[in-house]
Amino acid sequence: MDLPLPEGYVAKVELPPGYRPRADEEYMSNEQLEYFRRKLAARLRDSEAFEAILLPPPSSLATDAVLVTGRMIEVSDPSDALGFFLGSNFWNGRVRARILLEDSMGRTLVEFEDSAQSDEGALPLTPGEERDADAMTAAMAGGTADAIVRWSKGEGLEPSLWQRLF
């Protein structure tokens, strides 16, 4: 069955070799979303929980396939001014997404939210100092992949206390 692309779908973007998100880019730009997609796919491949990870998604899915889609529902750009006056927690960037897993017929199997926050902990000391957009994007992709793998094994989406500690 051919599946339509979800509303708001960001088409594949060609990234230059060695690309990493930078603070001077538009926050959660198409390039950063593509980077997230690739990090998520790599983490899912590394888990070996699935037979194949196809990126970009094919126009039709096998009957036993699962389509992973997501939508950014909160993107807060870090604010240097608020960080200076109110403390570094207001400086940190935050991103939150709603993740949806669907079967080949387009039925929702599970839906959940995931988020990541920059944990720089301090304002940059020199103008133009990089915020760690790469680490935040990678953390979000890793957390999302881990939740999908847990779900595929019949476990809860949230990690157990044991998993959180070790």
Structure description:
With 166 residues, the chain is an alpha+beta fold. It has one domain: Rossmann fold, CATH 3.40.50. It contains 4 helices and 3 strands; from the N terminus they run H-E-H-E-E-H-H. The chain has a 3-stranded antiparallel beta sheet with strand order 1-2-3, covered by helices on one side. Helix 1 (30-47) packs across helix 3 (133-152). The radius of gyration is 17 Å and the shape is globular. The model is unreliable at 80-91 and 120-131 (pLDDT under 50).
How many β-strand runs? 3
Please report which band the strand proportion falls in: under 5%, 5-15%, 15-25%, 25-35%, 35-45% or over 45%.
15-25%
Proportion of residues in helical segments: 25-40%
Q: Which strands sit side by side, in order, in the main sheet?
A: 1-2-3
The number of helices is 4
CATH architecture: 3-Layer(aba) Sandwich
The CATH topology name reads Rossmann fold
Largest sheet: 3 strands, antiparallel
Question: How many domains?
Answer: 1
Oligomer category: single chain
**Distance between the amino and carboxyl termini:** 41 Å
Mean pLDDT: 75
